## 1
Amino acid sequence: MALKLRLPAIADETEAMAGHYQMLADPFMDFLLDYRPGEPFAAWVERVNGVSLGWHCPDPWLPGEFLFIETDGVVVGRVWLRHSLDAQMAEYEGHLGFVVLPGFRRRGYASQALAMSLARLHKMGIEIAVVTCDSSNEASIALVEGAGATFERMAVSPAMTRRRYLLTTWA
Ligand SMILES: CC(C)(COP(=O)(O)OP(=O)(O)OC[C@H]1O[C@@H](n2cnc3c(N)ncnc32)[C@H](O)[C@@H]1OP(=O)(O)O)[C@@H](O)C(=O)NCCC(=O)NCCS
């Protein structure tokens, strides 16, 4: 079945929370961005979908879309597409953040979701997407380089060292 990107829904609670707790040990990425421990899942859905639909943009969000990656009726990951970046995000985070849950990796889901995400960014008027990878994140580096990204330079701060890549958003 085809992979799709879609907004989270309240009915996703069980699998989304399971994915979130599974990813807490991951050094690179949270699953449910800005999920506050103990908060009702429905409250998180309302907050995050409000950002994606352009209704509000509370801290720490920037304008963008948070979408689940679904295939065959199962949530296998998520993407966070940022439509505009402040200076810190432009330097260290870029336009895209991906997670594919551990049980679903190496099936091409991130590659497909990346291609779909670039098309969405293109529709938002972004022609060149910045993607950054922690310099120790081999999977992320391989994914981005496999998608044809051009290495631009390192972004270095006292807290992190990231590889910055540029990807054209048109096929
Ligand atoms: C990075 C991540 C999103 C990749 O998801 P995925 O669905 O497994 O990626 P794909 O199956 O589309 O892999 C595409 C290519 O990336 C490379 N790749 C993916 N995982 C890899 C790994 N662990 N080691 C080396 N190369 C890897 C391979 O070249 C792969 O192609 P192949 O399987 O045909 O060899 C996933 O590992 C993840 O969620 N990691 C934790 C969160 C994270 O680091 N996100 C940062 C992304 S910018």
## 2
Amino acid sequence: MSDLPENEKDLLYYGNEQLIKTALVNILENAAKYGSSSEIVIALTFNKGKDAELCITDRGIGMDKAEVDLIFEPFYRSQNANVFKGSGIGLSLVKSIFGLHNLKYDVKSTKGRGTRFFVFFPPAKGLPEAQHTETFAHEEIS
Ligand SMILES: Nc1ncnc2c1ncn2[C@@H]1O[C@H](COP(=O)(O)OP(=O)(O)OP(=O)(O)O)[C@@H](O)[C@H]1O
Ligand SMILES: [Mg+2]
């Protein structure tokens, strides 16, 4: 793992703060809920000029590969999750939010062992272009 950058601007990511927070809170809530009270490890790996990698790991109930393939579908809940409260909506929202931001993500999981969720934040390329606004001359309506 590399050290954090000297210039904290190298860690900037431009996106919708509220939406990104909502997505990350959903992932963390899942780690807490399905993590069997184990320690949750949150790691940020920085590689200059490459994606910063956020990694959230729990040692909880885990999932089969077939289940992992379905967890971003609305209302999907795996069988071993039934004892926990939930509606199966959180990760479909996460998928939409990351999709809107073009953010890559991945999930690795082993049933009975735990789950690791990755989010890849690309290096910032400067502030987004200022929004184009048009002004219209007031025209008399005849
Ligand atoms: N960290 C995890 N460990 C094990 N299973 C998980 C984990 N995160 C998600 N899952 C599985 O993916 C399913 C979908 O997750 P999602 O967050 O969308 O819904 P939920 O947690 O059931 O309900 P909510 O809408 O309240 O978030 C869960 O029901 C569970 O089966
Ligand atoms: Mg959830």
